[in-house]
Amino acid sequence: MILPKLHYISQGDTPKEHLENIQKACTSGAELVQLRLKNLSAKKILKIALEAREITNHYQTRLIINDYYKIAKEAKADGVHLGKKDTCPTLARKNLYSWQIIGGTANTLQDAETLLQKKVNYIGLGPYRFTATKDNLCPVLGLNGYTLITEALNTEIPIIGVGGITTEDVIAILKTGIYGVAVATTITKDFNSIKVLNKLLNASSTEEMRHTFKQ
What we know:
By secondary structure, the protein is of the alpha/beta class. It has nine helices and eight strands.
């Protein structure tokens, strides 16, 4: 499986809004959506995840569940994204189907190296810049941080930039060795930005950037 270069991280004031925005993202050409719900019961998140799975299946869009690996398994999502304080990827892997992928959040080179040792399928590296989407934000990395970390890692595992990224940032970010980007606010404000982002990300696609997952 080749990992899409653009990840839409769902937003909304209510679960219903999250689902509506996922639908809009799929309609606008998103190839991968991450369902990111906070402060709800696992039962409620499972219900929303199953509905999200129906929507994404219809559009053949990949669905990643943030944090809840058991829900990712039950909803037969394409994978799970684990934050630094979430379950260890090694433990999640034991509980998931073999075809499900695991992404992990990294803010430092050490974080990223730890995730590689734990055999994640991709790394979400950030924040690129300040973003209000997350509480207790880690230090901002910017282009210099991305360049230093990607060069030091020298890995074929896709590194996804995340944190306040807009369409104007993409070309410069890709030059640092980053594989793709995860975007929330820019897309939620204007779903047409998906087409622009996809165009920018795929225009830079070179043969050596076509990462395939190592099982």
